[in-house]
Amino acid sequence: MTTYFCDGIKEVTLMNGVARLEFFRLQPAGPPGPNREVQGVTELIVALPAPSFLQALSVLERIRDQLIKEGVVKPASDSAASPAQVAPERSPNFPQP
Q: Has residue 37 been placed in a domain?
């Protein structure tokens, strides 16, 4: 089995009862330097039937609640943008200058 590392989900499309999840990874853009930018590049697209997608959402919500309960992450405030709406500026995989 192949393992893919992804930094996040770029887009979710629902068409004809199939959810397509487009995952991205961040990679350096431009020449090396202290202010090197990163760009999101599609790494993987997963297609799930709608019932399977809903089951996956349920599992992910349960994991999110567990992480909040254990104090690993803080719950999102109502005024803050959701993680799906805000792309990270840098990947944790690239060292900071």
A: yes
Is 63 inside any structural domain? yes
In sequence order, what are the beta bridge partners of 21? 12, 46
CA distance 90 to 68: 24
Decide if 23 is inside a domain. yes
| pLDDT in single tens digits along all 97 residues of the chain | 999 999 999 999 999 999 999 999 999 887 777 777 889 999 999 999 999 999 999 999 999 999 999 999 998 875 455 555 555 566 666 655 5
CB contact at 8 A, 23 and 43: yes
**How many domains is the chain partitioned into structurally?**
1
The number of CA neighbours under 13 Å toward the Cβ of 72 is 7
Distance CA 69, CA 71 (A): 5
Residue 77 lies in a domain: no
